[in-house]
C-alpha cells in the first residue's frame, strides 16, 4: 500500500486517555488511534469495553493498552502514567477526561458527594497532569513543535452556573483556572495545555437529559444548533488540539456545544 497522502495527525505520538471505557473518553481514544497515536485506554470500573477497544485498535494495526486506575487516588494516578510510559517508552499527550456527577440541591448535598466529585473531576485531573508533565520532561525535544500537549475535559459549566449541581459546576470552574495556570507555567517548556468544553453530548453521564422524547425536546431548547452532540464531535476537537495543527494554541477552552453557551434564552427575547 502506498503512503497516505496526508500523514495522520498524531503519527508516532503516545497518548493517555482517562475514563476511556465509555462516552467521550472512549470516542477520543478510538479517534486518537485512528489519527496514528499509540493509546493507553484508562478504565475505572468497566474493564471489558476498554479491553475490546484495545483489541479493535490492535486489529487495525495500531498500538494500545488498557490500564485500570482510579484517577482520584494519588498512587493510582502515578501508576497509570508509569505503566503507560513502560508500555510505549514515553508519553507525549494526555486527555484528562474522567468525570462524574452526583447531583443534589445545596440543602441536600452531602459532604461525601461534594468531595467525591471534586476528587475525580478536579483532583484527578491535577494528579494526571502532574504525572504526565513529569513524564513529558523525559521525552525528546521537537524543534519547531510543542514537546507535549494536554487537553483537560471541561464543560460548558465552567462558565454556565448550574443549579442543583454545585459540586460539578465548581469542579469545572476549577478546571478552567487550573488549565490556564498550567498553560502559563508550562509554555516555556513548549508543553501546551488546553481544555475542551462539551455542551450536551449523548453519553451515559447525562442519560436522563436525552433518554426520553420529552427530555430530549426540553434539552434541544438549550441548543441553537438543533441537535444533541455526539462523542465523535468532541473527539475530533480533542484530536486537533493535541496535534501540531494547533501549534501555538495554549491556555484556550474550545467549546464544542452547538451554541449552548450563547445564551439561547435570548434568541426570541428582546
Ligand atoms: P461517562 O460517564 O461515559 O464517562 C466518564 C468516565 O469517567 C467513565 O469512563 C468512568 O469510568 C470514568 N471515571 C469515573 N470515575 C473515575 C475514576 N475515579 N478514575 C478513573 N476514571 C473514572 O460520561 P462522559 O459524558 O463521557 O464524560 C466524560 C467527561 O466529559 C467528563 O469529565 C464529563 O464531565 C465531561 N462532559 C460531559 C458532557 C456530556 O454531555 N456528556 C458535557 C460536558 C462535559
UniProtKB/TrEMBL annotation:
The record ties this protein, via InterPro entries, to: NAD(P)-bd_dom_sf, Sc_DH/Rdtase_CS, SDR_fam
Q: What is this protein called?
A: SDR family oxidoreductase
Q: Which SUPFAM superfamilies match?
A: NAD(P)-binding Rossmann-fold domains (SSF51735)
Ordered alphabetically, the record's keywords are: Oxidoreductase
Protein family? Belongs to the short-chain dehydrogenases/reductases (SDR) family.
Question: Which Gene Ontology terms cover its molecular function?
Answer: oxidoreductase activity
Query: In which organism is this protein found?
Result: Roseomonas indoligenes
Q: Does the keyword Oxidoreductase apply?
A: yes
Write one Pfam family the protein is assigned to: adh_short_C2
Q: Does the keyword DNA-binding apply?
A: no
Amino acid at each position: 500500500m502506498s503512503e497516505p497522502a496526508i500523514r495522520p495527525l498524531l503519527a508516532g505520538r503516545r497518548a493517555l486517555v482517562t475514563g476511556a471505557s465509555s462516552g467521550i473518553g472512549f470516542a477520543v481514544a478510538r479517534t486518537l488511534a485512528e489519527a496514528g497515536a499509540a493509546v493507553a485506554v484508562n478504565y475505572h470500573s468497566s474493564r471489558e469495553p476498554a479491553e475490546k477497544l484495545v483489541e479493535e485498535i490492535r486489529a487495525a494495526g495500531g498500538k494500545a493498552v488498557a490500564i485500570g486506575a482510579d484517577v482520584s487516588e494519588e498512587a493510582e494516578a502515578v501508576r497509570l502514567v508509569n505503566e503507560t510510559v513502560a508500555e510505549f517508552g514515553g508519553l507525549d499527550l494526555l486527555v484528562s477526561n474522567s468525570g462524574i456527577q452526583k447531583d443534589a440541591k445545596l440543602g441536600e448535598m452531602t459532604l461525601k458527594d461534594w468531595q467525591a466529585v471534586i476528587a475525580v473531576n478536579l483532583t484527578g485531573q491535577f494528579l494526571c497532569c502532574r504525572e504526565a508533565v513529569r513524564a513529558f520532561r523525559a521525552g525528546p525535544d521537537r524543534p519547531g513543535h510543542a514537546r507535549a500537549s494536554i487537553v483537560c475535559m471541561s464543560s460548558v459549566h465552567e462558565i454556565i452556573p448550574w443549579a442543583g449541581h454545585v459540586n460539578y459546576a465548581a469542579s469545572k470552574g476549577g478546571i478552567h483556572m487550573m488549565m490556564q495556570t498550567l498553560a502559563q507555567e508550562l509554555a516555556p517548556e513548549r508543553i501546551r495545555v488546553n481544555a475542551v468544553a462539551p455542551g450536551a453530548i449523548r453519553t451515559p453521564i447525562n442519560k436522563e437529559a436525552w433518554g426520553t422524547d420529552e427530555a430530549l425536546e426540553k434539552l434541544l431548547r438549550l441548543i441553537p444548533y438543533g441537535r444533541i452532540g455526539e462523542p465523535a464531535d468532541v473527539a475530533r476537537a480533542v484530536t486537533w488540539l493535541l496535534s501540531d495543527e494547533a501549534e501555538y494554541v495554549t491556555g484556550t477552552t474550545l467549546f464544542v456545544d452547538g451554541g449552548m453557551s450563547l445564551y439561547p434564552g435570548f434568541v426570541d427575547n428582546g
